[in-house]
Design goal:
Strand order of the largest sheet of chain A: 4-3-5-6-7-8-9-14-13
CATH topology of the largest domain in chain A: Rossmann fold
Strand content of chain B: 35-45%
Distance between the termini of chain B: 16 Å
Order of helices and strands of chain B: EHEEHEHEEHEH
Radius of gyration of chain A: 22 Å
Number of strands of chain A: 23
Number of domains of chain B: 2
CATH superfamily of the largest domain in chain A: ANL, N-terminal domain
Shape of chain A: globular
Strand content of chain A: 25-35%
Largest sheet of chain B: 7 strands, antiparallel
Structural class of chain A: alpha/beta
Largest interface: A-B, 17 and 21 residues
Oligomer: heterodimer
Number of strands of chain B: 7
CATH class of the largest domain in chain B: Alpha Beta
Shape of chain B: globular
Structural class of chain B: alpha+beta
Number of helices of chain B: 5
Chain lengths: 426, 142
């Protein structure tokens, strides 16, 4: 499929799209209602051109149907559940059938092959294992390929470096910022890249620049490959760069991409920058039609120097919403707001300051101490600070530095408070 | 017998304390006693002023986080051991003190501003032991 002609690809996509629309229409009441409101029945979808008639799916749909309302198979068919943070409070839940897991492993295997990984490689998977799709997604793809997997998960940098040396790790899979952190720790310990056998890095789950790529490649002496995915669609492996590093090949026989104008919601011609939208066409457990990823990018349908015809997406240029990616974790300002709202009737003004210290992202949250929060006693203010810190950390899943500040400290522009300062220059 | 103490939230930043005192001074409000409690990041300015109600509203207008807290004030002889004596009585009766600060106007006596966990009980104990409580009206005047 990777080198199929456009006609062959379209034929496969059309067949699978029709089947998916049919299944969703009959199994997901909320999407059926959307189609009925648009005056559509499954038979109206006969070609890829008809795709743009279909209603979009958005993150709110997932939250409204929390936790399993958008699964199209009975729970007895679901063999794995993953979750990622939602925009407010509740997480986004995704389910996989046995076949879905096989598909996922297959597309990760394909991605690894594009990156130049083969079965002789020793792959250290330093993405988090758990509800996050990064760790397990890479893991099964590597096993499926026949490479040797070290399922070390994230963190514990000393051990990461030790195993890289002792086991002769050849491929590192983690977030790009963590790879730089590892490189710095190695420098501090006096361990040279020549002492390692690393040759490829498979990095994703957060945005990174070409400059970061150069830095990683020179510090670790590797080829740094960008892998893309989102749990709603599948997880890592939705697309991945090949060794030419000229855009990420989308596994189009499983996910149909579209680029739309995020304001008019109209499809944009190939080559224009807009919001990336995916329709899954092989997923059984949790298929999605026209899911708005909120990632801004553009598509390139030209045949790649590697010979693959799979359409390529550029590195994401930003977001069409206010989501931040901090240490690979999705953070929405509205999550912070909802935590603060739980503690008082009116949400205080707050400001998120995202920074990159060394190579790790830090999140500082400034909260204005307005009357409803102010106590005359230090211990109560300290307790308040701890409570906010604790709640934010448990909801966001990353460490947060909370600072209480005076009212009106946070700058207002046109009456509306600025919510985010991102100093990372991504 | 309770006194309205004005409490203001301050970040540890140059000039913040100055700003509060300027505002109060410009409004003709006198401060008879104050203390600053601080942590590494913020502080609480607590003070007894000539007109607590007015001070509260003008500081609110200037968008400070501010509130009034009930405290009591005790007049104690300005001599070695007198504070210890008072504290022994209070702790003996199970009164917990959140914070206190004191000032002396002359050589004879000192005023101690107290924030107990249970204000009614504290007043009762002090009366029982015939300790000298300062009236609000006297405090605001000083």
């Amino acid at each position: 499929m990777e080198c199929a002609s456009r006609e062959e690809m379209s034929a496969v996509q059309t067949e699978r799209l029709k089947e998916t629309v049919n299944r969703i229409y009959h199994n997901v009441p909320s999407y059926r209602q959307k189609m009925q409101e648009a005056g559509l029945v499954p038979n109206d979808i006969q070609s890829l051109d008809d795709l743009s008639k279909l209603p979009f799916s958005i993150k709110t749909d997932l939250r409204d149907n929390y936790p399993f309302g958008m699964f199209t198979v009975p729970m007895s068919e679901i063999v794995r559940i993953h979750a990622s943070s939602g925009t407010t409070g509740k997480p986004i839940v995704v389910g996989y059938t046995r076949k879905d897991l096989n598909t996922w492993a297959e597309i990760v295997t394909r991605s690894l092959c594009m990156a130049g990984v083969h079965r002789e490689d020793i792959v250290q998977v330093a993405y988090g294992y758990g509800l996050f799709t990064g760790g397990l997604g890479l893991h099964y793809g590597c096993e499926n390929l026949g490479a040797s997997v070290i399922p070390i998960s994230g963190g514990n940098t000393d051990k990461q470096i030790q195993l890289m040396q002792d086991f002769g790790t050849t491929v590192l899979a983690c977030t790009p910022s963590y790879s730089l952190f590892i490189a710095e720790e190695m420098e501090a310990k006096g361990i040279k890249k020549e002492n390692l056998k690393l040759r490829i890095g498979v990095f994703g789950a957060e945005p990174w620049t070409e400059n970061m790529r150069k830095e990683i490649e020179s510090k670790l002496g590797i080829k740094a490959i960008d892998i893309y995915g989102l749990s709603e669609i599948m997880g890592p492996g939705v697309s991945c760069e090949c060794e030419h590093q000229a855009g990420m090949h989308i596994n189009e026989d499983h996910f149909i991409p579209e680029i739309i104008d995020s304001v008019t919601l109209q499809p944009l011609p190939a080559g224009e920058i807009g919001e990336l939208v995916f329709t899954t066409i092989t997923k059984e457990g949790f298929p999605l039609i026209r899911y708005r990823t909120r990632d801004l990018t553009r598509l390139n349908y030209e045949k790649c120097a590697c010979g693959r015809t799979l359409v390529r997406m550029e590195k994401c240029k930003g977001r069409s919403d206010d989501m931040l990616i901090i240490r690979g974790v999705n953070v929405f300002p509205s999550q912070i707001e909802s935590v603060l709202l739980e503690m008082s009737e009116t949400a205080p003004h707050y400001l998120l300051i995202v920074d990159r210290e060394g190579n790790l992202d830090t999140l500082k949250v400034m909260v204005e101490v307005q009357e409803q929060f102010f106590s005359d006693e230090i211990k109560q203010l300290e307790a308040l600070r701890k409570k906010i810190t604790h709640k934010l950390q448990s909801i966001l899943g990353i460490s947060v530095d909370v600072k209480l500040v005076e009212p009106k400290t946070i700058e207002r522009t046109a009456g509306k408070a600025k919510r985010v300062i991102d100093n990372r220059n991504l | 017998m309770t006194i309205k103490q004005l409490s203001v939230f301050l970040e540890n930043k140059t000039g913040r304390l100055n700003e509060v005192t300027q505002i109060l001074g410009n409004a003709g409000i006198n401060m008879s006693a104050f203390s600053v409690a601080d942590t590494s990041e913020f502080g609480i300015l607590r003070m007894i002023v000539s007109d607590p109600g007015k001070a509260l509203s003008i500081l609110k207008e200037a968008e400070f986080s501010v509130r009034l807290t009930d405290v009591i004030c005790l007049n104690s002889p300005n001599e070695p051991g007198s504070l210890a004596k008072t504290l022994t009585i209070l702790s003996g009766e199970g009164v917990f003190i959140e914070y206190l600060y004191a000032y002396s106007m002359d050589n004879k006596s000192a005023n101690i501003v107290l924030k107990p966990d249970n204000i009614e009980k504290c007043i009762e104990v002090l009366r029982k032991h015939k300790l000298d409580l300062v009236k609000a009206s006297e405090m605001y005047k000083i």
